C-alpha cells in the first residue's frame, strides 16, 4: 500500500507540474511597447504603422497589437492590419498576402486590439513592421510622440493614395503582446519524464 501511495504522490506532483507549465505558457504578456506620446494623429484618410523590435529570449505566439485612442486613452484598432518582416513603400490599398515580407494579416479586433491567428510566431531580437491596410474613418485619432522615444523602430504613415513612408523622429503609442513559447529546462524535462514513468507504474500496480 505504501508503494502505491508514494507512486500516486509522484504522479500527482508531475501532473500538477505539467498543468502549471501549460498555464504559464498560455498567459499573454507585453513583448514591447511605447507608452510615451500625447500628440493626436490619424484623421480621415490616414493609414498608420509602426516598426518594432522584439527583445532577446524566447519566441512568442498569440500575437496582438494595438494603438491608443487620443481621447479615451484606451487600446484602439481599426480595419485590417498587416505584419511584415520587411519595410514597405507601397500604398495601403496594395497590401496583400503577396506583398514582399508578408507574414500575416488580421481584421479580427477584440477589446481594441488586432488579434492574429494563434500560430503566428514572432522570433526574438527581430525587427517587424505593422501596417494598416485600411484608412481611419475619421471618428478616431490615436496618440503618437514626435520625440522618437522608442528605439526599436519608428512610426509609418500614408495619406490617401500616397505610399507608406517613415515619420522621421516619431513613434506611435502602441502595445505588442503575445504568449512566450517556453523552452523546457533539463530539470523540467526530467521531472516531466519521471511523472510519466510514475503514472505508468501506478497503472500497472493497480
Report what the structure shows.
This protein has 206 residues and is α+β, with helices and mostly antiparallel strands. It has a single domain (28-181), classed as Jelly Rolls (Sandwich). The chain contains 2 helices and 15 strands. It has helices at residues 2-26, 186-205, and strands spanning 28-34, 39-41, 46-53, 60-68, 75-76, 81-84, 102-106, 109-110, 113-115, 127-132, 142-145, 155-159, 165-166, 171-172, 174-180. The strands form 3 sheets. Strands 1, 4, 5, 8, 9 and 15 form a 6-stranded antiparallel sheet that branches. It has a 6-stranded antiparallel sheet with strand order 7-6-10-3-12-13, with no helix packed on it. Helix 1 packs across helix 2 (186-205). It is globular and about 45 Å long. Residues 1-6, 11-24 and 187-192 have low confidence and may be disordered.
